[in-house]
Write a structure and sequence with these properties.
heterodimer; A: D-Maltodextrin-Binding Protein, domain 2; D-Maltodextrin-Binding Protein, domain 2; seven-stranded mixed sheet; B: MetI-like fold
């Protein structure tokens, strides 16, 4: 979500030249760790803060406060030359856990499947593991197949999917360029196959969608409060939509 | 006047001495720090887990064997490329090439050595890996072999530059003696010049291997980072995850003082011990060779 945080910071600084916001990337864990250590005012995270992180923050005398600032859908992407265009959640899970190893098993060509994933420190990785591989079941202990390629950036995944017809990858909808093929996902076999879009994420019919968070240490005050209020405004949420993420307040737009 | 000279001399000798000792102090400090941060891993993670074949730290699976074999296979591949190419180039530059070729080649090789590894990584992702996938008919081009090729490219300039200096230092009389005995140019290079420069050439090889095993950015970008145990020859053509890439990719995220943090430092210790072993092996070979040469001369 670093793209989004950067765009917000830029737009806000244009309107308020007296405020300086610097944004650093590195993954949700990095941001929350920095909040715990007190080196940042706001931590952006694409996953909810963990219980142990809250405890660690309290031990350091902090108190993380949560804001849902946008929504995000994870798109499953393949090379445009791949004839497969829809999969069930179970099939995606079986592909990534190593039960399905050839595209012909899901109606494609006779090609080996090359699985691409973000690194384990990415919030997207953890979210995908919990929601797709383990189908949202707490007791499910499915793991990524050992030969899953762990790429350090979204760009790495997109580059590989663009040039490799064997590859399957996943990434935030906001990062997927138009020249890649997005797979329609069905929640269960026999269900409707849904492509991710602003509409399908908002009505919750697309199954791989999540909320994006900002955390502050204690109730925000002063500049941080003004900034967070602005982020939830229609103007800032328009930026969310422009970047391919999904705004949080589409149902009741503020004036 | 004389007094100030003495004083200056005193400061300068001390400064030089201090910088000499500082290298030892720094290595020791780094070693102590590594041990302090890494050894607790042995108490926190069971040996069975540490020696398992699954690396998945967010589920407390800390099998480091795939990472060790990954580093080793990539480094061996890189050495197989860098050593013959590097020594060959060094021999060509120092023994065969005419003066003007040599004057162009040497700076060019050094320029290659100055290429940032992230640039090579980009070339690897965008050009080399798609090419290898099609050319070798692999499922993906992000493999240990891709990493080896690029690392070989990174190590070649190091090998060339050190080996060329060593060859250059061989007295001209050696070559002239060989030619006078009727040796061909090739015989002179292979039987006289190279053996005479052996210790320098070996240093070049070790430095090259050290450069390859420690390289991080390029490998992280092109080897696919899948922690699979790499034991077969075929593993060279499938994705692997190296120790350096693991540390680089995960260290920024990890909570200070956690088990995962200690295990990453433990991997650092393993890496340190491997390069120490390579260096000790190399210098003992050089040492033995020197001893023998002394015996023959006396």
């Amino acid at each position: 979500m670093v793209n989004l945080a950067l765009a917000w910071a830029e737009a806000y600084q244009d309107a308020h030249p007296d405020v300086r916001i610097s944004v650093t990337g590195g993954g949700s864990g990095t941001g929350i760790a920095a909040l715990i250590n007190g080196t940042v005012d706001i931590a952006n995270a694409s996953r909810q803060i963990k219980q142990e992180e809250i405890e660690e923050a309290r031990a350091n005398g902090g108190n993380p406060v949560e804001f849902i600032v946008a929504r995000d859908a994870i798109a499953v992407i393949v090379n445009p030359a791949n004839p497969v265009s829809q999969l069930t959640l179970q099939q995606v899970s079986d592909i990534y856990s190593g039960k399905i190893n050839n595209w012909k098993e899901v109606g494609g060509e006779d090609r080996p499947i090359v699985r691409l994933s973000r690194e384990t420190n990415s919030g997207t990785h953890v979210y995908f593991l919990e929601t797709v591989l383990r189908l949202g079941q707490k007791e499910n202990k499915t793991l990524f197949s050992m030969d899953t390629l762990l790429l350090p950036s979204s760009e790495g995944i997109i580059t590989e999917v663009r040039q490799n017809p064997n590859a399957i990858g996943y990434d935030g909808l906001g990062y997927v360029p138009p020249d890649l093929k997005v797979i329609a996902i069905a929640k269960e076999a026999g269900g409707a196959y849904v492509l991710p879009s602003i509409a399908t994420v908002n009505d919750k019919s697309y199954p791989i969608a999540r909320d994006l968070y900002m955390y502050t240490n204690g109730e925000p005050a002063g500049v941080a409060k003004a900034y967070l209020d602005w982020i939830l405004s229609a103007e800032a949420q328009q930026i969310v939509a422009d970047l391919g993420f999904v705004p949080v307040i589409t149902s009741n737009p503020s004036p | 006047m004389e007094k100030s000279l003495n004083w200056r001399e005193f400061v300068i000798t001390r400064a030089i001495k201090a910088s000499g000792y500082s290298a030892i102090v720094f290595v020791l400090l780094i070693f102590v720090f590594l041990m302090r941060e890494g050894l607790p891993a042995l108490g926190e993670v069971e040996a069975g887990n540490l020696l398992s074949i699954r690396w998945y730290p967010i589920e407390e699976m800390f099998g480091i064997l795939p990472l060790i074999t990954g580093s080793i296979i990539v480094t061996i591949g890189a050495a197989l490329i860098a050593v013959p190419f590097g020594i060959g180039t060094a021999v060509f530059i120092s023994e065969i090439a005419p003066r003007w070729v040599r004057e162009i080649l040497k700076p060019l090789v050094e320029l290659l050595g100055g290429l940032p590894s992230v640039v090579l990584g980009f070339l690897g992702i965008l050009v080399l890996s798609p090419f290898l996938r099609v050319f070798l008919d692999l499922p993906t081009g992000l493999t240990a072999f891709t990493g080896s090729l690029l690392l070989g490219g990174i190590a070649v300039p190091t090998v060339v530059s050190v080996a060329e200096d060593a060859l250059d230092a061989v007295p001209r009389a050696y070559r002239e003696g060989a030619w006078a005995l009727g040796a061909t140019r090739w015989q002179t290079i292979w039987r006289v010049t190279l053996p005479a420069a052996r210790s320098g050439v070996l240093t070049a090889v070790m430095l090259g291997i050290g450069r390859a095993i420690g390289e991080t950015m390029t490998v992280m970008m092109v080897t696919g980072n899948a922690p699979v145990l790499a034991l077969k020859l075929g593993s060279l053509f499938s994705p692997v995850r190296t120790m350096t890439a693991t540390i680089a990719a995960e260290m920024g995220e990890v909570a200070n003082g956690s088990t995962h943090y200690h295990v990453l430092f433990f991997i650092g210790i393993v890496l340190f011990l491997i390069s120490l072993g390579v260096n000790i092996a190399a210098s003992s070979v050089v040492f033995r060779a020197k001893k023998r040469a002394e015996r023959i001369l006396s």
